[in-house]
Amino acid sequence: MTAPEVGQSRQVLNIGMIGLDTSHVLAFMKLLHDKNDPWHVPGGKVVAAYPGGSPDFPSSISKVSEYTATLREEYGVRIVDSPEEVAEASDAVLLHSVDGRVHLPQFRRIAGYGKPVFIDKPFAVSSADAREIVRLAEAHRVPLMSASSLRYAKALQDAIGSGGKSPVIGADACGPMALEPTQPGLFWYGIHAAEMLYAVMGEGCVQVTAVTSDDHDVAAGLWSDGRIGVIRGNRKGNGSFGVAIHREKGIDWVYAQSDPKPKYASLLEVILDMFRTGVPPLPASETLEVIRFLEAANESRKTGRTVYLDKTASKAGEAS
Predict the structure, then answer these.
(1) Residue 237, domain member (yes or no)
(2) pLDDT of 4-24, one tens digit each?
(3) Domain interval for residue 188
(4) Which residue ranges does UniProt annotate as crossing the membrane (predicted)?
(5) pLDDT tens digits, residue range 37-81?
(6) How many domains does the chain have?
(7) What is the DSSP letter of 188?
(8) What is the CATH number of the domain that holds 224?
(9) Long-range contact pairs involving 253-259 (C-beta distance under 8 Å, separation at least 24)
(10) Residue 313, pLDDT score
């Protein structure tokens, strides 16, 4: 099966899934396939899936058998033996693997098919892997996007897009920040706060300084225009996500889960639009910067030093 031409698609897209080891799989399946769901997202059906799973990652491998059986028995999805078979059978691919370490090797195996691909969070767990994924996508002309569902939470998008607002001068994003040994530092859950922060601030961070304790993390970024953006996370059981959007006139306080529309439905609508049009909703440069922001935050929380996103600038600062 060849990739659909940009701007054209059949009425219903055949979608493939790679990585049946995250709750996102079942959430997406229900939204796509259950027409009685009040938040049903029409336009796609999952036809093939590769289970995957990381043996050294309990949260991953423990879900694979159950989720594979659910897709096969409840939804009639064909379970295949390789990522390549998924790409061959599909118009577009949801690369859901919960382990960010495997995203590059899995994407490398399907990039040559030229199909649109969504890579679930975290896009990668190093900026080197992230850059290589983008390079492969560009080389094979693959429409590509990655995002946390929190970026597209309706309450946040409404606050960002509401008319008549004064310019944004900064933002503070917060949420739970559990740590996972296989996913370095803040990549596991810090990705959510970072994605919300970048949804508000956009690109342009030049340096990051982090403070960490057993129960909390804070990473403050300085943007090239002088604005400051902050992510704050806790490991005290507070699972709420929110953003304070600082404007020249006033502050918007956003509780990301306040709207009844599921964040996965909002994200899936954006994904399907990219699958149909071939046009990613975000520039690759922003996705790369989010990963580098977290990488710099990880380095700063270890050393206590300010870390430049441009590694050349960082080395120059050390020499001065």
Answers:
(1) yes
(2) 554 444 589 999 999 999 999
(3) 150-261+291-319
(4) none
(5) 999 999 999 999 999 999 999 999 999 999 999 999 999 999 999
(6) 2
(7) T
(8) 3.30.360.10
(9) 254/155, 254/156, 254/159, 255/155, 256/150, 256/153, 256/155, 256/156, 256/175, 256/196, 257/153, 257/155, 258/155, 259/153, 259/154, 259/155, 259/158
(10) 54
In-domain check, residue 156: yes
- 144, burial (CB in 10 Å: exposed 0-12, middle 13-18, buried 19+): buried
Q: Same structural domain for residues 101 and 192? A: no
**Backbone φ and ψ of 256, nearest 5°:** -65, -25
Alpha-carbon distance 241 to 194, whole Å?
Answer: 11
The distance of Cα 266 from the centroid of its chain, to the nearest Å, equals: 13
Tens of pLDDT along 166-202? Answer: 999 999 999 999 999 999 999 999 999 999 999 999 9
Q: Does residue 208 sit within a domain?
A: yes
Whether residues 79 and 164 share a domain: the answer is: no
Can you state the percent helix, strand and coil of the chain, rounding each to 5? 40, 20, 35
